Amino acid sequence: MGSLCFNDGVQDDRQPWWKAATFYQVYPASFKDSNDDGWGDLPGLISKVDYLHGLGVDCIWVSPIFESPQKDMGYDVSDYQKIYAPYGTIEDVDALIQTCHERGMKLILDLVVNHTSAEHEWFQESRSSRTNPKRDWYIWKPPRYDAGGNRQPPTNWRGYFAGSTWTWDEHTQEYYLHLYASEQPDLNWENAETREAIYEETMRFWLRRGVDGFRIDTVNKYSKRTEYIDAAVTDKNSPYQAAPEMWCNGPRIHEFIREINQVLAPFSAVSVGELSNTPDPKQVLPYVSTRARELDMVFEFSVIRLGNGDLFTGKYIYKPFTLSQLKALTEKWQCFIEGTDSWATVFCENHDNGRAVSRFGDTSTPELWRASARTIALWQATLTGTLFLYQGQELGMTNMPASWDISHYQDVEAVNFFAEAVASRNEQRIQATKHGLSILARDHARLPFRWNEDDNVGFTTDSAKSWMRIPREKGISVESQLGDRTSVLEFYREMLRLRKRFQGVFVFGTHTLLDRENESTWAYIKEGFLTTKDGHRMRGRALVVMNFTVERAPLVDVSAALGCAPESTRLMVTTACGAVRGAKDELSAWEGRIYCDFGPEICI
Ligand code: NOJ
Prior knowledge:
16% strand, Oligo-1,6-glucosidase, domain 2, Immunoglobulin-like, eight-stranded parallel sheet, alpha/beta, binds 1-deoxynojirimycin, 27% helix
């Protein structure tokens, strides 16, 4: 766990390894299939660790690989100590750990312990009778009855995947709670015996096998308010209401997370928690303050949620946003750690969102796709905090083609939200949901990773067997981009190197937003300390300036922004290549640049 360092742009020798590390999320079902069944697997991943190593990845996070009925792609675990057979075996995990460690890389697993699968033996026991010793391991409540004597759930809460958070159990005549699908019952963290089983049978089991830590799913939902009362009615058209105040950041959450910390600490394991519904920095800080001994890092979702409608009922009713909103949110989550002992994460993709280039960039032509994907890389690689990449982001992978119809969406959330829209018989809502899904759905990020230009994209050997359809566009693959200096992939590789080399500025530096109302270009200053070859510490400043439009854009006054004489400023990076490079004082379409007052002039 972290040592006590305050974030003031100083890169300190006492900093833990994971701050300057690049993490890379693998969604195993879609990464690399080694046995021709159309489903990615661990031997496939092992065969590609060298690719990730070459890219500059320090730590791999693998989304859930455990035994599961796959109602939510493995985020419904039925046995934490077994591997879902299509992924491989526990020996494959050992081999993956070894493969990473031999290359000086780390491996973290996804810890999903807010809920289990309904098929987990703990739940099978819990639901077997009201007197079973594990009855209290889950959250069971008696029904309510309305004036007409009809049975009703204990509260009016809406679940993430639409419908009620409660499912009736005929056998024991009570409801159980599930914030997600009905096949994902919530564990009762109030029960100390349950918590100890989680720590021992999920966490320590894998830590003893050598994993380096966990990405912790839904980390702020373990402590629920225990009154179990109705939420305020915010959607008059539904019997079910958004109720995050009832089950998010609840009264005992920090106590539970400190216990988690005590499990991780003896293994010096890293933790990154998924912290949803918490957009207030004051509320986030206690989770990631080093002194509080809770989590090393969290994912805060304000940036990645841009474009989403209301998180509950209207999530897939797309809400357009402006560049200044994107800037302001980035600034907010860059600056919240300054002067504190906490730490930030940097990411713009994961398995729960549409692809970044399709949301923040421009995919209307191959040139604009490339230019905007490279500028997104520049943006991410120059931000303070630990950088997380999602598989395929480094290739500029895009959302599904617009021509694909709704039958290609397989994710439980997409399917349920669309079914809900259809049930409303409101044509406008149906069309709006379709549109929102085409930009935001979780399915987009789950399309097979593209290794080559073949019909099977090198993911599998028979595209007909692939669990998700394989798009056919050319040019978005490792094969087509590797070695091409104008590609998205090679740009990511260069940027990851540069970020490490000047980490005092890019990873640890302070962030100052310039010209915040400008809706075309985005400019910020990164400032921190760098150590010269002869061991001196010097202050370094970088100006990151990016054109987020297809129009040429005037360049800011670089020397004024950097606060130094024109002859001391250097162009360190431009995303543009050859003929499309902008003029000296003008950025071309989607061009991004870094100017600095230190280091060599490197044009990549
Ligand atoms: C967050 C995960 O990222 C998501 O994929 C999953 O559906 C929910 N948690 C439930 O585990």
